[in-house]
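Archive maintenance. Older records in this collection stored only the sequence; we are now back-filling the structure field for every entry so that each record is complete. The fields below show one back-filled record exactly as it appears after the update. Entries are processed alphabetically, and Transcriptional regulator GfcR is next in the queue.

ARCHIVE ENTRY
Title: Transcriptional regulator GfcR
Organism field: Methanosarcina vacuolata Z-761
Length field: 203
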Amino acid sequence: MKDIEDLIQKAVELQSNGLVTGQIAEELNVSRETVTWLLTRSKKEEITPAPKDISVDWNSIGKSAKRLHNISLALCDIVLETLEKINAEVDVVVGVAANGIPLASMMAYELGADLAIYHRKGQETVSTGHKGTISRNFGSVAGKNCVIVDDVITTGSTSMEVIEQLREMDAKPKLVVVLVDKKGVDTIYNVPIKSLVRVVRLD
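Back-filled structure field:
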């Protein structure tokens, strides 16, 4: 996406296809506040100042299985380095639907670990305490060391949700690993956050 007009057009298109704010935010890798701003701007309503956010477009990676595989190898290297420091092993790689799943699948294979998939319950209900689920069609997490894989951390709410859910299932979340960290924190709920790229805003 080369400019704001592209983002506005994509946000409007996604909304017209039935996606709600949280889903659009996930698809565009921006915050919910940014989606609201984009949609408001598209209707030529009173323009409020743009939120401080950065859109992450990793389509050039996502459209190529070879590139996804190479990125997954880099993320595996980060996982192994981090777990060695805390003297832990990985039993299960948990992919956050939908964007974390391709990377998590390849990483689980490379790490010799089970694969679990986390489905968010409702994109608009995260703040009200509703949580998602671990799919029954994939690996079990109970009692196991888990590495959580997603594409981008924007506010950290998804990572918080997954960590909470895993702990409620007696799993042991050891690490969250992502392509891009826009939040810029070292830990969430005492779980280390590692990324290939960390975005730091200079205000």
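Update note: Residues 59-198 form a domain with the Rossmann fold fold (CATH 3.40.50.2020). The helical segments are 4-16, 21-28, 32-42, 59-62, 65-85, 101-111, 157-168.
Entry marked complete.
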